[in-house]
Amino acid sequence: MHAIVLNTIKYSDKDLIVELLTEKDGCLSFMQRISTSKRAKIRTAWFQPLARLDVDYDDRPAHKLKRLTTAQPLPLLTIPYEPAKTTMALFLAEFLRVTMRSEPASPLLFDYVWNSIEWLDTCRESFANFHLVFLLHLARFFGFEPNLEAPSPNCYFDLESGTFTMVRPLHPNVLLPEEAQLLPTLMRMNLATMHLFKLSGEQRSQLLRFMNNYYKLHIPNFAELKSLKVLQEVFA
Protein backbone atom coordinates (compact mmCIF):
# COMPACT_ATOMS: atom_id res chain seq x y z
CA MET A 1 0.00 0.00 0.00
CA HIS A 2 1.26 3.48 -0.82
CA ALA A 3 1.96 5.91 2.04
CA ILE A 4 3.38 9.43 2.43
CA VAL A 5 5.44 10.55 5.44
CA LEU A 6 3.97 13.55 7.27
CA ASN A 7 5.84 13.65 10.57
CA THR A 8 8.16 11.84 12.95
CA ILE A 9 8.39 12.32 16.73
CA LYS A 10 11.11 10.80 18.89
CA TYR A 11 9.26 8.73 21.48
CA SER A 12 12.28 7.25 23.26
CA ASP A 13 15.93 6.49 22.63
CA LYS A 14 14.85 3.44 20.63
CA ASP A 15 11.50 4.37 19.08
CA LEU A 16 9.86 6.93 16.82
CA ILE A 17 6.23 7.75 16.28
CA VAL A 18 5.74 8.06 12.53
CA GLU A 19 2.66 9.72 11.04
CA LEU A 20 1.74 8.56 7.54
CA LEU A 21 -0.95 9.50 5.05
CA THR A 22 -1.98 6.10 3.68
CA GLU A 23 -3.74 5.30 0.44
CA LYS A 24 -6.55 3.23 1.96
CA ASP A 25 -6.83 4.25 5.62
CA GLY A 26 -6.07 7.98 5.74
CA CYS A 27 -3.76 9.31 8.45
CA LEU A 28 -2.28 6.68 10.75
CA SER A 29 0.38 6.71 13.47
CA PHE A 30 3.00 3.98 13.87
CA MET A 31 5.55 3.05 16.50
CA GLN A 32 8.82 2.39 14.70
CA ARG A 33 12.14 1.19 16.10
CA ILE A 34 15.01 3.58 15.35
CA SER A 35 17.59 1.96 13.10
CA THR A 36 20.49 3.37 11.08
CA SER A 37 21.86 0.01 9.96
CA LYS A 38 21.91 -0.59 6.22
CA ARG A 39 20.86 -4.16 6.96
CA ALA A 40 17.70 -3.09 8.79
CA LYS A 41 14.42 -4.10 7.18
CA ILE A 42 13.04 -0.58 7.84
CA ARG A 43 15.47 2.33 8.13
CA THR A 44 14.80 5.55 10.03
CA ALA A 45 16.33 7.62 7.21
CA TRP A 46 13.38 6.74 4.99
CA PHE A 47 10.94 8.80 7.07
CA GLN A 48 11.65 12.26 5.64
CA PRO A 49 8.84 14.82 5.00
CA LEU A 50 6.79 13.82 1.94
CA ALA A 51 8.84 10.65 1.39
CA ARG A 52 6.81 8.05 -0.49
CA LEU A 53 6.75 4.44 0.68
CA ASP A 54 5.16 1.12 -0.07
CA VAL A 55 4.15 -0.33 3.30
CA ASP A 56 2.34 -3.16 5.06
CA TYR A 57 1.40 -3.02 8.74
CA ASP A 58 -0.14 -4.89 11.63
CA ASP A 59 -3.76 -3.72 11.67
CA ARG A 60 -5.01 -5.31 14.89
CA PRO A 61 -7.62 -2.95 16.42
CA ALA A 62 -6.30 -3.40 19.95
CA HIS A 63 -3.12 -1.50 19.06
CA LYS A 64 -3.58 2.28 19.18
CA LEU A 65 -0.18 2.76 17.59
CA LYS A 66 0.27 0.33 14.74
CA ARG A 67 3.56 -1.22 13.66
CA LEU A 68 4.91 -1.43 10.16
CA THR A 69 5.74 -4.96 9.07
CA THR A 70 7.43 -3.95 5.80
CA ALA A 71 8.38 -0.69 4.12
CA GLN A 72 10.05 0.05 0.83
CA PRO A 73 11.02 3.61 -0.15
CA LEU A 74 10.31 5.03 -3.58
CA PRO A 75 13.45 7.18 -3.95
CA LEU A 76 13.09 10.91 -4.49
CA LEU A 77 15.42 12.53 -7.00
CA THR A 78 15.66 16.14 -5.81
CA ILE A 79 13.42 16.97 -2.82
CA PRO A 80 15.84 15.75 -0.12
CA TYR A 81 18.83 17.44 -1.76
CA GLU A 82 17.63 20.91 -2.80
CA PRO A 83 17.13 23.26 0.19
CA ALA A 84 14.18 25.13 -1.39
CA LYS A 85 12.32 21.90 -2.12
CA THR A 86 13.20 20.45 1.29
CA THR A 87 11.73 23.52 2.99
CA MET A 88 8.61 23.30 0.83
CA ALA A 89 8.24 19.60 1.67
CA LEU A 90 8.57 20.31 5.39
CA PHE A 91 5.80 22.92 5.20
CA LEU A 92 3.44 20.85 3.07
CA ALA A 93 3.92 17.77 5.24
CA GLU A 94 3.02 19.80 8.34
CA PHE A 95 0.08 21.39 6.51
CA LEU A 96 -1.27 17.99 5.46
CA ARG A 97 -0.85 16.61 8.96
CA VAL A 98 -2.92 19.46 10.41
CA THR A 99 -5.65 19.31 7.78
CA MET A 100 -5.87 15.54 7.36
CA ARG A 101 -5.72 14.33 10.98
CA SER A 102 -9.50 13.88 11.30
CA GLU A 103 -10.39 13.39 7.64
CA PRO A 104 -11.64 10.02 6.34
CA ALA A 105 -9.59 8.18 3.75
CA SER A 106 -9.98 9.62 0.24
CA PRO A 107 -8.27 7.81 -2.65
CA LEU A 108 -8.76 10.83 -4.92
CA LEU A 109 -7.13 13.18 -2.43
CA PHE A 110 -4.30 10.73 -1.84
CA ASP A 111 -3.65 10.44 -5.58
CA TYR A 112 -3.59 14.24 -5.85
CA VAL A 113 -0.95 14.51 -3.12
CA TRP A 114 1.07 11.56 -4.43
CA ASN A 115 1.17 12.86 -8.00
CA SER A 116 1.94 16.42 -6.85
CA ILE A 117 4.98 15.18 -4.93
CA GLU A 118 6.19 13.38 -8.04
CA TRP A 119 5.75 16.56 -10.09
CA LEU A 120 7.75 18.64 -7.60
CA ASP A 121 10.49 16.02 -7.40
CA THR A 122 10.99 15.89 -11.17
CA CYS A 123 10.59 19.62 -11.85
CA ARG A 124 13.98 21.18 -12.53
CA GLU A 125 13.16 24.88 -12.34
CA SER A 126 10.41 27.51 -11.86
CA PHE A 127 8.67 25.72 -8.97
CA ALA A 128 8.53 28.67 -6.54
CA ASN A 129 4.72 28.88 -6.83
CA PHE A 130 4.16 25.14 -6.37
CA HIS A 131 2.96 25.33 -2.75
CA LEU A 132 0.39 28.02 -3.64
CA VAL A 133 -1.07 26.00 -6.52
CA PHE A 134 -1.03 22.83 -4.40
CA LEU A 135 -2.94 24.45 -1.51
CA LEU A 136 -5.47 26.13 -3.78
CA HIS A 137 -6.48 22.90 -5.52
CA LEU A 138 -6.25 20.84 -2.33
CA ALA A 139 -9.21 22.85 -0.98
CA ARG A 140 -11.54 21.29 -3.55
CA PHE A 141 -11.14 17.89 -1.83
CA PHE A 142 -12.38 19.43 1.43
CA GLY A 143 -15.36 21.04 -0.27
CA PHE A 144 -14.41 24.71 0.16
CA GLU A 145 -12.32 25.64 -2.88
CA PRO A 146 -12.58 29.44 -3.16
CA ASN A 147 -14.28 31.02 -6.14
CA LEU A 148 -11.55 33.25 -7.56
CA GLU A 149 -13.06 34.04 -10.94
CA ALA A 150 -12.10 37.51 -12.12
CA PRO A 151 -14.17 40.04 -10.12
CA SER A 152 -15.23 43.56 -10.85
CA PRO A 153 -12.68 46.21 -9.82
CA ASN A 154 -12.57 47.18 -6.15
CA CYS A 155 -14.20 43.99 -4.86
CA TYR A 156 -13.66 42.62 -1.38
CA PHE A 157 -12.98 38.94 -0.83
CA ASP A 158 -15.08 37.22 1.83
CA LEU A 159 -12.89 34.56 3.44
CA GLU A 160 -15.88 32.89 5.10
CA SER A 161 -17.92 32.37 1.93
CA GLY A 162 -14.91 32.07 -0.38
CA THR A 163 -16.30 34.60 -2.87
CA PHE A 164 -15.78 38.17 -4.07
CA THR A 165 -18.33 40.78 -3.09
CA MET A 166 -18.90 44.43 -3.95
CA VAL A 167 -20.13 45.11 -0.40
CA ARG A 168 -17.77 44.79 2.53
CA PRO A 169 -18.92 41.97 4.86
CA LEU A 170 -19.78 42.85 8.44
CA HIS A 171 -17.41 40.23 9.86
CA PRO A 172 -13.62 40.82 10.02
CA ASN A 173 -12.60 37.86 7.84
CA VAL A 174 -12.25 39.80 4.63
CA LEU A 175 -9.54 40.91 2.21
CA LEU A 176 -9.59 44.55 1.15
CA PRO A 177 -9.68 45.25 -2.61
CA GLU A 178 -5.96 46.01 -2.78
CA GLU A 179 -5.22 42.71 -1.02
CA ALA A 180 -7.69 40.71 -3.11
CA GLN A 181 -6.41 41.81 -6.51
CA LEU A 182 -3.82 38.99 -6.64
CA LEU A 183 -6.36 36.20 -6.20
CA PRO A 184 -7.53 35.90 -9.84
CA THR A 185 -3.85 35.45 -10.79
CA LEU A 186 -3.65 32.53 -8.36
CA MET A 187 -6.77 31.00 -9.86
CA ARG A 188 -5.23 30.97 -13.33
CA MET A 189 -2.19 28.99 -12.17
CA ASN A 190 -1.76 25.26 -12.44
CA LEU A 191 1.30 23.01 -12.43
CA ALA A 192 1.73 23.33 -16.19
CA THR A 193 1.39 27.12 -16.39
CA MET A 194 2.60 28.50 -13.06
CA HIS A 195 6.09 29.22 -14.44
CA LEU A 196 4.47 31.86 -16.69
CA PHE A 197 3.36 33.95 -13.69
CA LYS A 198 6.06 36.16 -12.23
CA LEU A 199 5.38 37.04 -8.59
CA SER A 200 7.51 39.10 -6.27
CA GLY A 201 8.50 37.68 -2.90
CA GLU A 202 5.99 39.96 -1.18
CA GLN A 203 3.18 38.89 -3.50
CA ARG A 204 4.00 35.23 -2.89
CA SER A 205 3.97 35.86 0.87
CA GLN A 206 0.59 37.61 0.61
CA LEU A 207 -0.93 34.67 -1.24
CA LEU A 208 0.53 32.19 1.25
CA ARG A 209 -0.95 34.18 4.15
CA PHE A 210 -4.29 34.17 2.35
CA MET A 211 -4.26 30.40 1.87
CA ASN A 212 -3.19 29.80 5.48
CA ASN A 213 -5.93 32.08 6.88
CA TYR A 214 -8.52 30.60 4.54
CA TYR A 215 -7.82 27.06 5.72
CA LYS A 216 -7.73 28.24 9.32
CA LEU A 217 -11.32 29.47 8.96
CA HIS A 218 -12.58 26.30 7.31
CA ILE A 219 -10.69 23.52 9.15
CA PRO A 220 -11.69 23.05 12.83
CA ASN A 221 -8.83 23.36 15.33
CA PHE A 222 -6.34 24.38 12.66
CA ALA A 223 -3.00 24.61 14.47
CA GLU A 224 -0.33 27.24 13.98
CA LEU A 225 2.24 25.98 11.49
CA LYS A 226 5.82 26.12 12.74
CA SER A 227 7.26 25.86 9.23
CA LEU A 228 5.21 28.73 7.73
CA LYS A 229 7.67 31.48 8.62
CA VAL A 230 10.63 29.48 7.30
CA LEU A 231 8.89 28.92 3.96
CA GLN A 232 8.02 32.61 3.67
CA GLU A 233 11.66 33.56 4.25
CA VAL A 234 12.97 31.08 1.69
CA PHE A 235 10.63 32.22 -1.09
CA ALA A 236 10.51 35.92 -0.23
From TrEMBL:
GO terms for biological process: DNA recombination; double-strand break repair. Signal peptide: none annotated. Residues 2-73 form the DNA replication/recombination mediator RecO N-terminal domain. Keywords: DNA damage, DNA recombination, DNA repair. GO terms for cellular component: bacterial nucleoid. Transmembrane segments: none annotated. The keyword DNA repair applies. SUPFAM superfamilies: ArfGap/RecO-like zinc finger (SSF57863). Pfam families: RecO_C, RecO_N. Belongs to the RecO family. Involved in DNA repair and RecF pathway recombination. This is DNA repair protein RecO. It comes from Alloprevotella rava F0323.
